[in-house]
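Chain X:
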Amino acid sequence: MNTHPAQEFQQRLVSDAAAAVRGLTVSLGDRLGLYRAMADSKPVTAEELASRTGIQPMYAREWLHAQVSGGYLRTDAAGARYWLPAEHVPALADRDSDLHAAPFFSALAALYTSEDSLVDAYRDGGGVGWDEHDGTLDDALARYFLPGYRAHLVQRWIPALEAAEDRLKDGGRIADVGCGVGYSTFLMAEAFPAAQVRGFDYYALAIEQARDLAAQRGLPEERVDFSTAGADAFEGGPYDLVTTFNCVHDIGDPDAVARHIRSQLSTDGTWMIVEPNADPDPLRNTHPAGRLFMALSAVMCLPAAAAQKGPRALGNHSGEDTLREIARSAGFTRWRKADATPVSAVYEARP
């Protein structure tokens, strides 16, 4: 029996709605440790999972049913035992894997809570700043990007830059601009113990969290410190390396920021720009990561930049040509794409 095109699209919409609601169950599974309790891929009953994780059996059973329905878990013919397939473990349960994606879903609650503010912004042309979202957003997105940073930042991205790694090993200076809660800052500080690393972010709550996390990691303040400052106002240069991780597109005046970064760099320093690996053409962003970035740009990234009332709000998929033009206008004379993953594009700009 043929399905009418309108019905086909309606079913796709229902499928998307199911995925959106299932996202909440993924967040619950991540926060409650349910996936990690099943990471050995051995079958368990609802009662066994409840006992392992300290949740109630009736909720364990309902959560398991939702996961089986979505294809995240498997069950036996009797529906009595459930397991997490080994190939699903990296994305759902292994926090050390660069494929780990479960933390993202904790960001959804904060984004949906901001819907009324987004409605107003869409109508009046204003924005919704990072500090206007629930504070869980910053931490959730930081945890989502952390596995990729942990897998690539020190091992691939910095070594791909011209001369930067050797300079940092010898005791260079790093400014991590838009550092959020500091995960990228910590990774660089721990990898280069002779270097001085400073993290900057305009969001005071994120800086407070970064300081607390630094203390928990035992990182000395004289070598790793955090300050509340905008990307166009941080100080302390000259720096050998300035990093911006997925934040240039959240800035209302990226041209001014590029000029300021240029002023804070040493004469032979490097600006490492990590941005979403997305294309300006939406028709080329139909792959999974591209679809995620397009949606985030509409509800988070563009509104964050617009809230700053600057002259140029980019969205998260402006592309390499636009970023190169911004850097060259700021006085950078050398530019190249140093590395890329399915999620991140890494650019090197030098004076």
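Chain Y:
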Amino acid sequence: MRKIALSTTFGYVLLLFFAIPSIVMAQNQAGKTVEFELKDSDRVVFLGNSLFESDKNGYLELALTTRWPDKKVTFRNLGWEGDNVFGQARSHFTNPPTAYETLMQQITAAKPTIIFIAYGGVEAQDGAAGLDKFKDGLNKLLDKTDELGAKAILLSPIPVLSGIPVDILESRNKDLQLYAKAIADIAKARDKQFIDLYNPVTDFQKQAKISEDGIHLNEVGYYLMATALENGLGLVSQPQVINIQVVKSGLEAATPAKIVPSEAQQMKFTIAESYLPLPLLAAELPKIEQKRTVKIGGLKKGFYTLIADNVPVITASEKSWGAGIEIKQGGVFDQTKQIQHLINKKNDLFFQQYRPWNETYITGFRAYEQGRHKEGLADLEYIMVWLENQIYLNSAPKSIVYQIVTVK
């Protein structure tokens, strides 16, 4: 991820970012039934290795943000590529503090109320011989999160998908499964929730290309992993079918669709949305189960365009509309993409704040040279708060007017 040395003033950065475009039940796989919800003022932290750091499109945060549009929640991504439960990847810039002390400081500074922990992928390279050390480290880490009063949710590592010889791949994945089981056992012993990502990701690779190198997920992979996280938390999305019927008086519709009364003859309707859907990558997900289908019956022979707030979405024949067409773009999807854009801008700023380019010189043992720039890092908090307010104010689904128009 890109890092930027900070010497600009707060005012300059503020001007830059004003240009930005506009309680469920979950079955814990470790055996415990738990409730998961986000509340106002919750602070959610993602802690782990590249599994979190590489989510540059913010799908995990987006999935949780849109589920509770009426809750003002703060998210911080503390993922660090190559990291383990001892924070060793964080040791490159200064000593003291030690890498582990740095990890503890970063967790404490984030003030989590909920913390998703994803370790084990790096540690599994040590095989069975390193398992006890890993379990000790994970337990020690959980002692810290308990001390902070944060609810910890443990995630399994994901499999290696390709890129290495088959025999090594099989051995590597057996070790990853061994560590995943250890994480599940610790979750059960400590009354924590555990979410299996290993098996869902294994299945996802049969549906789409989810990685470029066989180790790190690509954008499609993170979209699908976000759905796996939702399912693991009990946030299951049911496929939605919107049924519209053309009649002499105009249109008839079944919930969640509602006809615009005064303009029924113009074939206009709205759709009641409880939360924004994740933006779909239509071209990349041909085998994914349809989530949102619009069926329009009673159309005369011809071609028709579905328009959302005066913007064309898709054109098809009356026969195709009668059978049902999956909608993956326009309308609420455009709104979700704007929220995703704001999330990514905020996360870029946070990355610059807690991992500046010249860490050793700004916050480390050579801060006597450039420590004056630390004030600039603190100023970024104002921009992040502004972005978080924009996310909160725009996360509730807007009322969008859809119209069916004949193609002439």
